[in-house]
Amino acid sequence: MATKRLLSDIVSLTPSNYDDFRRCPRLFYCTALLGLPASDPAPSADQGLQVHDMLRKIHADGECHDQAHVDDVLESHGFDTPAFREMIARHSRRCPSRASHGDAHEVDLARFHRVPPPMFMATARIDAVWVHDGMLDARDYKTGGRYVDSVQEMPAAQVQAYVLAEKATARGLRLRLRYEYLQPEVDEDPEWWEIDDEAVAVIEEGLRAAVEQMWQEKDWRGVADIEVCRSCRYRSICRDSAAPGEPAWPVLSTAPGGDEPQGQTVG
After folding, report:
1. What's the total number of domains in the chain?
2. Furthest CA-CA distance within the chain
3. Measured at the alpha carbon of residue 72, what is the angle toward residues 66 and 73, in degrees to the nearest 5?
4. For residue 77, what are the domain limits?
5. Which residue in 155, 183, 211, 240 has a CA-CA distance of 20 to 30 Å to 94?
6. 219 dihedral zone (left: phi>0; alpha: psi -120 to 50; beta)
7. Is the peptide bond before 116 cis (omega within 30 degrees of 0)?
């Protein structure tokens, strides 16, 4: 199969698939191009999705600083637990809603790059956007571990910043992107990122160069790095894996003379 044909004429970039590509081209190939289900177990994302939803509901009908309102939302949706209460409380201490004059939650944004080629469409869903003090203050809620000291270090943040910058500029606002960690185990958020026009130009060129690299890829080889592979959700079926294992889902090939599905790599 000609892998180039798996790329659309206008390549779609999202925070997650761009992060995958920067982490390992083979991971991007398995997810964004082949659409394979994960072969290896990964931590459940249920709690993260649920707390995101509760924060959206809390802000939609009231304020996170109103404890009675928070109690009512959590109780009515069956999430009145110490863990959820602590995560909402951590957010409320950092929430700018009282100072803002406009906010939105779970905002879908897109921005198209045409020239210089190759073309790409960057899209992102932003958890929350606040407007205050002449600033568009964007938040990405996190419920996992912290691995970087600055938001600027995250490949996913490059895509988020790129789509947000167009909206901030159109409204004459400065732009700040903050990753807000809700887990009590994380003492401090990474340093937020204030993005100016010069930074946006650098981001755009970085994204364009990455898409150009995608078009030049022929083999989509994995990085074969134990630190990357050990947490990869395709490690047991990847031909380049440095952390082999047994796939959690059946595969098509069978042992000669037998009926049991056998593990195999993705070619």
Report:
1. 1
2. 71
3. 90
4. 44-93
5. 155
6. alpha
7. yes
Q: Which residue has the tokens 């602590």?
A: 86
End-to-end CA separation in angstroms for the chain: 10
Do 124 and 161 form a contact (C-beta atoms < 8 A)?
no
In terms of phi and psi (left: phi > 0; alpha: psi -120 to 50; beta: otherwise), the region of 76 is: alpha
Structure tokens at 75: 């109780």
Residue with tokens 């890829």: 217
Residue 145: per-residue pLDDT: 85
Backbone φ and ψ for 194, nearest 5 degrees, come out as -100, 120
Say what percent of the chain tops pLDDT 70: 91
The helix (H) or strand (E) run that includes residue 267 is none
pTM, 2 dp:
0.88
Residue 263 lies in a domain: no
Render pLDDT for 13-38 as a digit per residue (tens, 0 to 9): 999 999 999 999 999 999 999 999 99
67 occurs within a structural domain: yes
Q: Is the dihedral of CA 31, 33, 35, 36 positive or negative?
A: negative
Nearest-angstrom CA–CA distance, 267 and 26: 11
Number of neighbours of residue 162 by Cβ within 10 angstroms = 25
From the list 245, 229, 225, the residue with the least C-alpha distance to 237 is 245
CB-CB contact of 91 with 45 (8 Å)? no
109 within domain boundaries: no
SS3 of 216-235: HCCCCCCCCCHHHHCCCCCC
Name the token pair of 166: 């167009």
In a domain, 56, yes or no: yes
pLDDT of residue 46: 81
> Structure tokens of 230?
């050990």
DSSP 214: H
